[in-house]
Amino acid sequence: MACVMDGNGRWAQRRSLPRTDGHRAAETTVIDIIEAARGAGVRWLTLYAFSTENWNRPDPEVEFLMGLVRRVVRKHAPLLPARGIRCRFLGAGDPRIPRELARDLDDLTTLTADNRGMTLTVAFDHGGRRDIVEAARSLILSGTPADEVTERLFAEHLPFPDTPDVDLVIRTSGEQRISNFMLWQVAYAEWVFPEVLWPDFRASDFIACLHTYRRRDRRFGGVPPRTNGERP
Ligand code: IPE
Ligand code: IPE
Ligand code: MG
Q1: Pocket test for ligand 2, best of 5, 10, 13, 54 (most atoms within 8 A of CB)
Q2: Which ligand is nearest to the CA of 125?
Q3: Which of 49, 33, 5 is nearest to 208 (CA)?
Q4: Is the pLDDT of residue 226 over 80?
Q5: 202: buried, middle or exposed (CB in 10 Å: 19+, 13-18, 0-12)?
Q6: Where does substrate bind (predicted)?
Q7: Which residues pair with 192 in a beta bridge?
Q8: Is the dihedral of CA 188, 192, 193, 197 positive or negative?
Q9: Which residues line ligand 1 (CB under 6 A)?
Q10: Per-residue pLDDT tens over the stretch 146-176
């Protein structure tokens, strides 16, 4: 499952604070939700932290976010092994990412590579379209003949091909759009759009979203299961 962590800026603006205070306040939610997901038995959690489009934000905000991610990674890295969390970063290829931060992300990936409890993927400098274009490039470079290209083979050229398709995406703050998030992998995801802003999102809200998901009738293009006595 995945979270599009949205609404930090509005959280701050409603308090007449600078937008960056909203990002700072998001840290608590991130840690709470990782724990809530682990407690609920979620094996694959992806958090959308920074999109390829977020580079269009004012430089001071982008710089703040880079610094914040570094502080959060350094502060919480030592806690991950004991919790059995494998952490990795989806994206993170842009040369504008400060070198020290890129190194910390690599170090955390290496440090937690053998953990098997939960895989936490942080989508950082991520764009769904970019991933698809890079998969196409990789497929062409592999010399695969066009008539051998299948959905399954294509998916193997996406980053982290072991990650299962996303079943549930939670996007906070009431915004109802994809914003270029894992376009291939969300093809049949269920979406939940709680109104609450990300810094106010708590474990109880997260559990409520899981309940909403459980009540959904997932059909995958089929028809609902037959009720007793009903003719096809
Ligand atoms: C999400 O909060 C965090 C990032 C995109 C990095 P926003 O910063 O988008 O908050 P709003 O949508 O402006 O309220
Ligand atoms: C999407 O949120 C990216 C993240 C939450 C990291 P945005 O706030 O950047 O998306 P838009 O601009 O509203 O589509
Ligand atoms: Mg936003």
Answers
A1: 54
A2: 2
A3: 33
A4: no
A5: middle
A6: 7-11, 19, 23, 51-53, 55, 57, 171, 177-179
A7: 170
A8: negative
A9: 5-10, 50, 54, 65, 173
A10: 999 999 999 999 999 999 999 999 999 999 9
9 CA closest ligand 2 atom index: 8
Q: Please give the biggest Cα pair distance in the chain.
A: 65
58-80 tens-digit pLDDT: 999 999 999 999 999 999 999 99
Query: Ligand 1 centre from 182 Cα, in Å?
Result: 18
Q: Is the CB of 54 under 6 A from ligand 2?
A: yes
pLDDT at residue number 227? 64
pLDDT class for 92, splitting at 50, 70, 90? confident
Ligand minimally distant from the alpha carbon of residue 53: 2
Q: Is 85 annotated as a binding residue?
A: no
Integer Cα distance of 20 and 61 in angstroms = 7
Mean pLDDT for the chain overall: 96
Topology of domain 2-124+162-214 in CATH is: Undecaprenyl pyrophosphate synthetase (3.40.1180)
